[in-house]
Amino acid sequence: MKLIIAVIRPERLEAVEEALRSALEEHDRFRLTVQPVEGHGRAGSEPGAPFQSTGPATGETGRPAPSLHLQLTIGVNESHLESALSAILSGARTGAGEPGDGKIFVLPLEDCLRIRTGERGDWAI
């Protein structure tokens, strides 16, 4: 099992959900949690990004102002990982891909328990 953490633009959520449904509909083996997050990419990597000062006006350059994104947490069985990743990429990417489109992290998922039934492992996803 794998845990996917994807940080995407809020306006791309519907497209990501649709892509996931299309890619995994026959399996129904993923679950999705969405939460709003704030953050920024590498300092200065996004042209025209607004900056916040980190100190008094003494010439300090500051850091990029945080931008609002959504964090998706998705549990998938390993056999569906590549399909899920492709779906997230296609749904989250804007046009040819722009700075700020987001990131995807993949982590091992040691166990999963369904509270309602007590099921464990890949069947609990």
N-to-C order of helices and strands? EHEEEEHE
Q: How many distinct beta strands?
A: 6
| SSE-based structural type | alpha+beta
- Sheet-strand content, in percent, reads 25-35%
Task: Characterize the largest beta sheet: strand count, sense, and whether it forms a barrel.
Answer: 4 strands, antiparallel
The N- and C-terminal alpha carbons lie at a distance of 9 Å
Q: Number of helical runs?
A: 2
Number of domains: 1
**Low-confidence region ranges:** none
Mean residue pLDDT: 83
- Share of helix, binned: 10-25%
Rg estimate, integer Å: 18 Å
What is the CATH architecture assignment? Answer: 2-Layer Sandwich
Q: Give the strand order, joined by hyphens, for the main sheet.
A: 2-5-1-6
Principal-axes shape call? globular
CATH class: Alpha Beta
The CATH topology: Alpha-Beta Plaits
